[in-house]
Design goal:
Alpha-Beta Plaits, 2 domains, four-stranded antiparallel β-sheet
């Protein structure tokens, strides 16, 4: 078959070359996988405020990407038109958390694979992603990193603060001295969820206030 005949045949073919059951199976698979992504995102979300609208967007994106994949795989002209239409779309919504990009690409690739009929690939990728998130989530739950901002007066208080950290690993990030008052900023790794070291810091004579900010790449104080 020549290139001209191939293009002519593709133009004449319409969407009905896909059987209705196959279309429904692909869209249903995309929907189910999108729901899985939604549940995983809700389970492993580590931010301050859970965005339900973004989570629902992940489901819709899987289904819509599947629909686009089904459409462009039926006809060359449709695929070229779709590429041209999508190329002029500009998305200006800022993605603040890099992990959100991971879920977005996961949702898009899931829609592509289900639309192409690669259901096993989509399922395998989901299993790998969940195992990876479980691994890193479990490692993160073993301890938390805090930024401690401590205001105190006197050299003796500074020495007592170092002892008050106890077994917790810490790194002094900065010290700001204003007259007799000193502001110390330290990064503290704490395995204790009770944060007992903060009580010890507050009990040190000369310490006026202690501020703790949970840190895991972004501030979630």
């Amino acid at each position: 078959m020549s290139t001209k005949d191939f293009i002519k045949k593709s133009v004449l073919e319409n969407f009905t070359q896909y059987s209705t059951p196959k279309l429904w199976v692909a869209l249903l698979a995309a929907l189910l996988m999108g729901v899985v992504i939604y549940l995983v995102y809700r389970r492993f979300y580590t931010g301050v405020v859970f965005s339900r609208s973004f989570a629902v967007t992940l489901v819709g994106m899987s289904v819509l990407t599947c629909m686009v994949t089904l459409a462009i795989s039926t006809n060359v002209v449709i695929s070229l038109g779709m590429v041209g239409a999508l190329s002029i779309v500009r998305f200006r919504t800022a993605v603040k958390d890099p992990m959100d990009l991971l879920y977005l690409f996961w949702s898009i690739t899931t829609g592509i694979t289900t639309g192409a009929g690669m259901y096993l690939l989509a399922l395998t990728a989901a299993v790998v992603m969940i195992l990876m998130l479980l691994l890193f989530y479990h490692w993160q739950e073993r301890g938390r990193v805090y930024i401690a901002v401590i205001h105190y007066t006197g050299q003796q208080a500074g020495d007592d603060i170092v002892r008050a950290f106890g077994r917790n690993k810490y790194v002094v990030k900065s010290k700001t001295m204003r007259g007799d008052t000193v502001e110390m900023v330290a990064e503290v790794f704490c395995k204790d969820k009770e944060l007992e070291f903060s009580d010890r810091l507050r009990a040190v004579p000369g310490v006026t206030d202690v501020t703790l900010i949970q840190y895991n790449g972004e501030y979630h104080g």
